[in-house]
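Kindly inspect what follows.
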Amino acid sequence: MKENIFAMGLICVEMAFFYLLYFIVDLPSDFYLQLGLLWMIIMLLSQHYKIRSTLVWDEIKSDLKAFIYFVLVAFVFAYPKTNFYLEIVGVGFFMSVFAVFANRMIRILFRNKLSRKTLIIGTGDEAYRIGKIANNNRFALTNVIGFVSTDNQIDNELKEDMRYPIYDYYELNDLLKNHIDQVIIALPEASKEEIDVITRHLFDRVRYIKILPQLNFTMTFNSRIDDFDGELLISTSRGRLGVFGKALKRIIDVCAGLCGCLLLIPLTIYVSKKNKKSGDTAPIFFKQKRIGENGKDIYIYKYRSMEPNAEKVLEELMKKDPAIKKEYLTNKKLVNDPRITEVGHFLRKTSLDEFPQFINVLKGEMSLVGPRPYLPREKDDMDIYYHSIIKCKPGITGMWQANGRSDVGFIDRCKLDDYYYKNWSIGLDIIIVYKTIKSVIYGKGAL
């Protein structure tokens, strides 16, 4: 009931804004009223006014599609009045932007009333990640009030996060009496029988039950669920770049490469001066062999952030210190790397050391967004993910940089890059670029 009230409020706010646009856009009043009705119908069909728990990225994609449909249909209406096309695009664009803004503000202002009180059953790293996403994304109407443990394995970060209480499973009955709206079962390793026991326990006691399934490398968001005469079948699918997708991605890469190379000029002068000031007179650029598209060798350009003979120094460090050797062989990097120069620390923290890779983007060897450019010696460690990762051009940024950067372990980076290959879209690229910029600004997971 409360969702319907706020949905009506959202409709009223958007229609008021639509009416205000009338005084700015020069359109006949009868035609403008038709556009208003068309906009409301399209947004209703796209479920924009359904106050549900989702992420802002999904809302943006949905509203962008609504904008395209609105413009296409409105153009048909405006066919006899050919001078209205620009006005229609303008109205659709501003309404789309305002729709996201209004929806977000209502969710933030009335989050306490709209959000679902949620328990997460599970205390592993996947469960904790779901909790963080739910509570850190203010657009999502999910209020995680605690985690329920089914065993003694509790994620270390969850233990240290004082925001979330951790309950034992035997306390679940008492917890469900506190008007819990939703339970998320985040036990991907649990057996079917274990999940059945928990869901029977929850049956008819909470309104929403969500389950985090156990996935393997064949499952993607492009997988399809089929009703096979009462049997649920999941069809595997791999989202490959088509001809149009490759062309569009290349156009974006060329534009980004040109802009990046122009910014590279003043940045190179700045880095050169900083190096000389610290007494470092060695070349500021270096190139390194990496694995490119289809497994071909490419040489990527970077600002040098380490000593000139970094590889030799690493070999000596690993010979002298077994702990350093173990850390590097496990994560393919050192947290406190003694080879990094004074200026190198700044370059890595701000990710400016990656900037010369815009040259590789312009040359067509790399993309703005893509998998990490892996070293040839890491090929065996990439395991089964190697074959999917090399189907894409490596990127300046990618899934792993946008999801924790250096805080992500090596095999998890491979999984994220495999996910990118199988779920690529322009929308995903935009989200990755945004999250990367946000990570750099806040210095999260700096290299």
